[in-house]
What does this fold into?
Amino acid sequence: MSLKAFHIIFVVVSMLFSLGLAGWGLHQFITLGKTTGLLFAIGGAITAVALLIYGRYFLKKLKNISYL
Amino acid sequence: MDIPFTTKARPDTGLYNAKLGIWLFLASEVMLFGAFFSAYILLRVGADPGTWAHGLMNVPIGTFNTFVLIASSVTVVMAWAALKSRNYSLYRNCMIITIMCALGFLVVKSFEYAEKFRHYEVWMKDGSRMTGHIDYDDGGVKKHAYFWSTKTLIKKKIESISFTSDDANQWAPGQYYPPMTKEQLEHVKKYADKGPQHHAVVTIKSADIQRLSAFVPAHSTFFAIYFTMTALHGVHVLGGAIVLSYFLFRGRKMWQTDPDRFINRIEVGGLFWHFVDLVWIFLFPIMYIL
It folds into this structure.
């Protein structure tokens, strides 16, 4: 597996992590009323979207490099 | 004599040798960290209710460090891609950012460790507990106490400690909750209600203390596994930073004489770096959030 393939896996895992963080933050905000929870929710969601956009850009830019 | 298959793939494996080597190494690393993650799960599910010291981590700091590592993975790939397009100066800049991120992670982590080494839990003889900080007077200068324990109180013949309790309002259901007496809780809450900077300072007699421990590995099973896993990960970050720094400062010669081999070295370094970052992405939620 090349660095390209591993990087794609890494970006997907990071995206899932960011969504998880957003979910946790939202839970903190709803159940405990913590304002920092809302910040985590917003920040996590923005990061997940940013990673999705970056992932698409990365795939497009390195389309000529092998996955092996 | 030339080392074979440093740039071209071996016919039997389909990979150049360094790539096969790094994946074998990463497989052994998966087993190493996998064993620790398994140990963590078993220790946690086997812990008695209320004894798992969850909720004592600084989540914003941990989150910041996580995004620092994610950013460093992006820059290490950019460095590799820059070499693929024969742009050495872009490679150098991306690699500098990667190494700065690695060092930044370690600096933040060391501050986080230092904060834990001066953060305490005190177990009272009446069964109550409190978490907070200890300050002491050293020739008129107020200092934070680091690494104190019950033995320190005996050894230094300290009769009482000035204990600054944590903000009682920060505790949430499901977190590690130190069971204070009603009087202690009221005292702490009275100060906590004034705002986050107003913590209650309680004078505790050494004779009333059953156990005193900083948030060090000896504090609890949680901190033992926390320090073991995060320190092991920190060593990997340091090792990765050293290897990438070597490529940055000593790589130009190889780039000029054998560029394809140099690109492969960066790819191998990048694979290791991604693995280290991936470990942290799993480590952070289980230690700080879940």
Remarks:
- The radius of gyration of chain A is 15 Å.
- The interface with chain B takes residues 1-4, 6-7, 9-10, 13-14, 17, 20-21, 24, 32, 34, 36, 40, 43, 47, 51, 54, 58, 61-62, 65, 68 of chain A (CB under 8 Å).
- Chain A has one domain: 3-61.
- Chain A has two helices and no strands.
